[in-house]
C-alpha cells in the first residue's frame, strides 16, 4: 500500500510538470473515499456484533483479518459448534486462547443483526472492488507515463 501511494505521489509530480496531471486528479480522492468507507463499515460490523454480545474485538487484533473474517462467516452461517469453529482456524499468532475466543463469540445473533452485517459486508466488498478498479487505472496511467 505504501509503495502504491509513493508511486502515485511520484506520478503526480511528474504529470504536473508535463501537463498530463489532470488525468489522475480524480483518482486519489476516490481511493481515499473507498478506503474510508470500508473502514467505517468494518467498525460498524464490530459494533453490531457487540450488540449481539459477541466481543470479537477483544480476541482478534485485526477486525478484517483472516481469523475475524472466518469467525464472522461461521457465525453468519448459524454455526453453534463454537469449539469446532475456533479450532478450525485457530493458530499460534492469535494472542487469545481458543477458550477465550469461544467465550467471546458466544452471543445472540438475531436475524435482524445478521441482515445488518450482510448489508455492511456487501458495502465493503463493493468498496474493495472499486479500489481494485482505481489501482488498475492508476497503474495504467503510470505505465503510459513510463513509456
Compile the SSE list and pairings.
Elements: H1 2-18, H2 27-51, H3 66-76, H4 82-89, H5 98-105, H6 111-146
Helix pairs in contact: 1-6, 2-6, 4-5
Explained architecture:
The chain starts with a helix and ends with a helix. The chain has helices at residues 2-18, 27-51, 66-76, 82-89, 98-105, 111-146. The chain has six helices and no strands. It has 147 residues and is mostly helical. 15% of the residues are buried. The protein has one domain.
Summary, kept brief:
By secondary structure, the chain is mainly α. It has six helices and no strands. The model has no long low-confidence stretch (mean pLDDT 78).
Counted by DSSP, the helix tally is 6
**Main sheet makeup:** none
Give the topology string: H per helix, E per strand.
HHHHHH
Approximate strand percentage: under 5%
N-to-C span: 23 Å
Low-confidence stretches: none
Query: What is the tally of beta strands?
Result: 0
Radius of gyration: 20 Å
Mean pLDDT: 78
What structural category arises from helix and sheet content? mainly alpha
Helix fraction? Answer: over 70%
User: Looking at the structure, what is the overall shape?
Assistant: elongated
Q: How many structural domains are formed by the residues? A: 1
Amino acid at each position: 500500500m505504501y509503495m502504491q501511494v509513493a508511486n502515485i505521489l511520484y506520478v503526480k509530480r511528474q504529470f504536473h510538470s508535463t501537463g498530463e496531471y489532470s488525468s489522475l486528479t480524480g483518482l486519489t480522492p476516490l481511493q481515499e473515499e473507498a478506503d474510508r468507507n470500508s473502514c467505517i463499515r468494518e467498525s460498524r460490523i464490530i459494533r453490531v456484533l457487540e450488540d449481539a454480545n459477541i466481543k470479537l474485538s477483544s480476541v482478534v487484533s485485526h477486525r478484517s483479518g483472516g481469523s475475524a473474517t472466518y469467525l464472522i462467516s461461521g457465525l453468519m452461517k448459524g454455526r453453534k459448534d463454537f469449539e469446532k469453529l475456533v479450532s478450525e482456524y485457530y493458530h499460534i499468532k492469535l494472542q487469545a486462547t481458543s477458550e477465550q475466543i469461544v467465550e467471546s463469540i458466544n452471543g445472540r445473533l438475531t436475524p435482524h443483526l445478521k441482515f445488518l452485517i450482510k448489508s455492511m459486508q456487501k458495502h465493503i466488498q463493493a468498496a474493495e472492488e472499486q479500489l481494485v478498479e482505481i489501482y488498475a487505472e492508476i497503474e495504467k496511467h503510470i505505465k503510459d507515463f513510463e513509456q
